[in-house]
Known about the structure:
The chain is of the alpha/beta class. The chain has six helices and eight strands. The strands form two sheets. A six-stranded mixed sheet has the order 1-2-3-4-5-6. A hairpin with a 3-residue loop joins strand 1 and strand 2 (about 10-20). The radius of gyration is 18 Å and the shape is globular.
Amino acid sequence: DFVIKHPIFLRILLELKTTGSKKIRDLKIPDPEHVGQWTFYSETRAIKHGFIIYENRESVTPTYFPIERNGNHLTLFSPNGAIVSELPDYVSKMYKKIEFVIWCAQNNSYPFEMCEECSKYGCKQQSVCKQFSETRKSVTFEDWSKK
C-alpha cells in the first residue's frame, strides 16, 4: 500500500492486491474487503482519491480501479473510468459494522451473516463457524442495530 504525490490531488492512496488472471478477468468491481481497507486508510490519512490495483501474478499486469471518497460517500469506478457504484454514507456504515463485530466479541456472540467468502468460495473456517454456532449466541447485524 502506498501514498504518492500527485500534481492535482496532492496525494493519492494506492491499495495493491495480487491475484490470478481468472479473478481479474471476472472482476467488475473491487472486492468489498479491499474497498473497506482502502476506505479506512483514506479516512484516517485524509486522502480522497486513489486506486485499488489488482496485479495479475502470472503476467504482473496491473488493473486499476479508481476510487474516490467525499466525506462519508464513496464512488467506485471501472478501470476505464466509468462510475460503477456510488456508496452513500459508506464510512459511517463501515465503522458501525466494526462496532458490531467488537460488540459480538465482548458479548460471547458472533455475527450471523454469511461472509462473502463463504457464499462465493466455500468457508475455509467451517470448524470455527461450527464451534461458534454451538457455543455462542448468533446475532444478525440488523437485530443488533435495532438495540
